Amino acid sequence: xxxxxxxxxxxxxxxxxxxxxxxxxxxxxxxxxxxxxxxxxxxxxxxxxxxxxxxxxxxxxxxxxxxxxxxxxxxxxxxxxxxxxxxxxxxxxxxxxxxxxxxxxxxxxxxxxxxxxxxxxxxxxxxxxxxxxxxxxxxxxxxxxxxxxxxxxxxxxxxxxxxxxxxxxxxxxxxxxxxxxxxxxxxxxxxxxxxxxxxxxxxxxxxxxxxxxxxxxxxxxxxxxxxxxxxxxxxxxxxxxxxxxxxxxxxxxxxxxxxxxxxxxxxxxxxxxxxxx
Length: 277
Fold this sequence. Notes:
- The protein is an alpha+beta fold.
- The protein has four helices and twelve strands, in the order H-H-H-E-E-E-E-E-E-E-E-E-E-E-H-E.
- The protein has a six-stranded mixed beta barrel. A three-stranded antiparallel β-sheet has the order 1-4-5.
- The protein starts with 5 loop residues before the first helix and ends in a 5-residue tail after the last strand.
- It has helices at about 5-35, 50-55, 80-85, 255-260, and strands spanning about 95-105, 110, 120-125, 130-140, 145-155, 160-165, 180-195, 210-215, 225, 230-235, 245-250, 260-270.
- It has two domains: about 40-165, Resuscitation-promoting factor rpfb (Resuscitation-promoting factor rpfb fold, Single Sheet); about 170-270, Beta Barrel (Barwin-like endoglucanases).
């Protein structure tokens, strides 16, 4: 077998090292001459200042007036050269990016509840709309022709659901238009049943189901209220034994009075708005 002299092998190793170093140097020189990608043509992945600077670099770019920062997304803005290739060579085109924030409607949840008087609705939690950012790109060509498309839709803030408590069951007592009412106070009272005494009420009306006696210092005469377990009522009478948070509720028969007796119950003092008296 023929073997190369040692000195020839050493010369080959030195040549390989030299050419390797030369190739690396040439690569570095070539990389130094390559321009970095145009960052102005990319959607900013930073804060609002970067977004404004990038949008201003686009011919005719517009930025939405909003307190929301632009989310970290990254997709290229369609270049004018690409637009020309799509729309026809030789035409003057401009690519415009529009950013618009629009409200997103909220849902309403209605819950049947005994916490409110029958026939009434009470808002437990107010709703609030969300905000959706819509990004469109519009290509404007010479002669006024325009072509646009939506490129992104981003939810900046989610809508807050509105929660309403509603009691749909019918109620006894006085007939009120509950759509004009709201609850002003709620508290516990001691309620005693009574029936005909041969006298009219303090307000001058004959007694009937739905007219109750109250302490005017606690519940003003003429007030409209809902008595839990009894129904809607009007404070129309007074009594010598009625003091503080006590009321008398009228029933037309003695048997009904005996069934009710005396008990603690919740009352809802109602405020009537925009009603013709």
